[in-house]
Fold this sequence. Notes:
The protein is 56% helix and 1% strand.
Amino acid sequence: xxxGWSRSTVSPVPLAxxxxxxxxxxxxxxxxxxxxxxxxVAGGPVxxxxxxxxxxxxxxxxxxxxxxxxxxxxxxxxxxxxxxxVGTGWPDQRVANWENQRAYYEFCYSDTVPLYGAExxxxxxxxxxxxxxxxxxxxxxRAQYDGxxxxxxxxxxxxxxxxxxxxxxxxxxxxxxxKSSGLPLLAxxxxxxxxxxxSAFGLALAWLATVWATSMLAGRRVxxxxxxxxxxxxxxxxxxxxxxxxxxxxxxxxxAWARRRPVLAGILIGLGVSAKLYPALxxxxxxxxxxxxxxxxDAVRTTSVAVLVWCAVNLPVLLLYPRGWSEFFRLNTRRNQxxxxxxxxxxxxxxxxxxxxxxxxxxxxTALNAIVGALFxxxxxxxxxxxxxxxxxxxxxxxxxxxxxxxxxxxxxxSPQFSLWLVPLAVLALPHRRVLLAWMTxxxxxxxxxxxxxxxxxxxxxxxxxxxxxxxxRDLALVALIVMVIRQIYRPAEDLVRMRAGDPVRRSARIDDxxxxxxxxxxxxxxxxxxxxxRPGLRPGPSPGLRPAQQHQEVWDARRDRTVSxxxxx
Length: 570
């Protein structure tokens, strides 16, 4: 005892003047098994009496940036075997070493390197303006199914094509500096390798932006962004293609929406659609929840701005080079089922010939296109039904994840880098870190049998079924995530019970939807003419005078209490 006070209640030094603490923040080192285990690497879990959110140096975001840089470096290192310069002369006379199918057995394949020459970037030509002829194995021009010459253009949306053009211009600048300086050291790196490095630098910045936006969208669960920073998918797919650009813009668009800036959200999503079409899918959840909450105007405003921005970016190229601009859409129309698609898995195991057998070169698979479109429309209709009739309004991230996941599952093309689209959405939609890490690991490992299958069985690679089995496992893992998200939507009372352990996103009445923006805490307010069967079922009426989130809380607490009482009576 010291002066009548217990030693445990006396601070050894004077207390700070500012004792504010983010006590509501989720602490994985205390309430998550995986987080607690990993925390021992860096000093153990946070102290019980620590002031949370007060560190000036190692803030959560900076720590996640450091983690992301480590995984992005691992991603670059997996591509490094394909970045070895061979040949003599200046950088534009040297090439990357891809001899003897090196890209497959070294697992270092990236679209960036072959596209530099195939799409005439190596010649300094502007995408969409220049074309080339598709050649056969003997080097002769090929004719497509209707007898016309098979003419090719840049196959990417405008913003991605311009990004490649800017990266090419910087690589050409490197070559010019090497030639003008005459330094042999500068001439040691091939121009195509420098193009890859410049592109990878921008893609790394884009992924850091994705980590930032995800952590901001996570609300009190800011450490969920660490799963985006440390996703195993990054190791193989971060620099396989240019999808990180669209992912960053899409996630930033959701953050703008969460901060109630619908115009900025529309600008960012419109730019994302100009880089890859998938960000357009994020508009569907906003429109559906706008109908349910009566906040339809903001959703329409975001959608309208996104369309205008997309038109502003695409219109100049469309008017100047209409044939080159339309190549992206034409290519996607004439592609058959991709090797990573569910249709190819069925074909691999059953010997099925597909919906469109005996197609000519570049002949569009009309039956497959129609079936893919119909299946996706059905999925969107099911998601709309969930969004409008679920007992408690779903979160924006939950619906966004369901739409993008359904698109990938039923689509005829699932390129490996497309999995990057799902990473931030899955992290925001499903707050179960070990489950997410297991899914990401399964998805990442599909790359290994894929490369060995492409290497060829005659070269001691793997047969097709080894690869398609892993694709099937990946698809089943994604279906499991979808089921978990839907279960979480339809059983909010169970979620509320678990949330008191500090795990799920919605915690008591204070948190409704961190990424919801104008939907956060909003009650149902369907238009008067909206059909009754497309509304939530009858529920007990909430007590008056409560905020909407508190009303939902009380309704489901009452239902849970009645269920427990009935169980005890029996």
